[in-house]
Amino acid sequence: MFTRKLVTILVGVMFFGVCSAKATTIIFESGHYIWTDADPYYDEVFLKNDASLDFLSGSIGKLEIIHYGLANIYGGNMTSIWTFDDSIAHIHGGDIDILAAFSDSEVYLYTDDFIYSPTGGAENNGYVEGLYYNTNVAFYISFYDDTSYSNLSIVPEPTTFLLFCFGWIAVRKRNLLENHFRGE
Known about the structure:
With 184 residues, the chain is α/β, with parallel strands linked by helices. The chain has helices at 2-18, 158-182; strands at residues 25-28, 32-35, 44-47, 52-55, 59-65, 70-73, 77-83, 88-91, 95-101, 106-117, 127-132, 138-143, 152-155. The chain contains 2 helices and 13 strands; from the N terminus they run αβββββββββββββα. Strands 1, 2, 3, 4, 5, 6, 7, 8, 9, 10, 11, 12 and 13 form a 13-stranded mixed beta sheet that branches.
């Protein structure tokens, strides 16, 4: 009887030693952090109080950015990104299923080739799809609600942006020359 209990206890200790329980939530309250494949999976990751995160690779469930947090996303997999309270997210790459953006937060999506639809997506509140300009990898991001798109800014490829600027300068210069010769 005693040996049976002892064996049961030892097997339990061995099982929990091999299959250790992992925390499902991590909170970064300030400072700068870098996330890679070497970091463990978490169901929720919180950035708050001026914390910043460079998400290079790896996988997490939900990334929540609040109270002036900053996230730079270059790759990896996320179920969702939630932004609140003057936080900022720069999305350069990665596989992101759902975007929710509220309370004066800003989300910058780095692409020059995209399609926006106000309907469809995972929550039927619209989606955006296209290619990230720095990797030319396809993305498809659903919106949590219909206000999420209003907090999203599309940032074009730098070369395209420069061409738009040079075009504007050329048109402006032409208009100034025409007005000069007309005597205006």
